[in-house]
Specification:
The protein is an alpha/beta fold. Helices cover 46% and strands 13% of the residues. The chain is built from 12 helices and 8 strands.
């Protein structure tokens, strides 16, 4: 079942171990409304347009501000800086509460894949060490999603780009995961749905890579130029396909 040289397997989260059930557009205004209810109750007299300018909500603004060099600002940092520029200096507790209210809305649209826990259980029982390497704007939100999905028990190590400061495919976030297990890239494999972030990043590190296509949004040029070690449609295929690595 398992290639003998593989010691650890890392998984992406969104689009890989969990999925977004419904289209996102209706969620964003509801989430932003929840955020502003906390801000207004804490004395912020601004309106969303005063903070966001041409953007409709914090999500749109955040992704527009993301650094092309793969640095990962957090939504906390972005919101805090925007408020400071408008003369509002709120406590960390208030800003965190506002973001927690916002993410509570979007968390309701994330669900674990039905084959996630069974597959992780099989892999763990073979002796493989498991970790999660995820891009995300808020580490607390990432941790909540893992708990809501019931997936924490399978992972020895979890790293989010929000906590680390750099996002996939930057080699440093993969190296941090490898360092935790004290492993070389050649004995680890990355599983993910995004060719550029997950597969290109792993390939560049010298890791094996498994591309899961069930939720993948495929760019034809990327599909032509970025080649995974193995391609699967579902998580449940992975245990039997590991023998193809090498």
């Amino acid at each position: 079942m398992t290639a003998d040289f593989i010691k650890a397997i890392f998984f992406d989260l969104g689009g890989t171990l969990m999925y977004d059930k419904d289209p996102w557009p209706p969620f964003f205004p509801r989430a932003d409304k929840a955020l502003w209810e906390v801000l207004h109750s804490s004395g912020v007299t601004l309106q969303p347009s005063d903070l966001y300018g041409e953007f409709n909500n914090l999500f749109e603004l955040y992704y527009a501000m993301r650094e092309p060099e793969l640095e990962e600002p957090t939504t906390f940092t972005v919101l805090e800086e925007l408020l400071h520029k408008k003369g509002f200096r709120l406590s960390d507790t208030v800003i965190s509460a506002a973001l927690r209210a916002m993410y509570a809305v979007t968390q309701s649209n994330w669900y674990p894949e039905m084959d996630a826990a069974p597959t992780l259980e099989i892999l763990r029982n073979t002796g493989l060490r498991i970790g999660y390497v995820s891009n995300g704007a808020d580490d607390e939100n990432t941790q909540v999603l893992i708990d809501k999905a019931g997936l924490r028990e399978y992972a020895e190590f979890i790293i989010s780009s929000a906590a680390f400061g750099l996002r996939k495919p930057h080699e440093a976030i993969f190296q941090a995961a490898l360092d935790h297990f004290q492993l070389k890239p050649e004995v680890a494999v990355m599983v993910g749905d995004t060719l550029e972030a997950d597969i290109l990043g792993a390939n560049g590190m010298g890791m094996a890579s498994i591309w899961i296509t069930r939720r993948a949004q495929v760019d034809p040029d990327q599909a032509k130029n970025i080649k995974p070690s193995v391609t699967v449609a579902t998580l449940s295929e992975i245990p039997d396909r590991l023998s193809e690595l090498g």
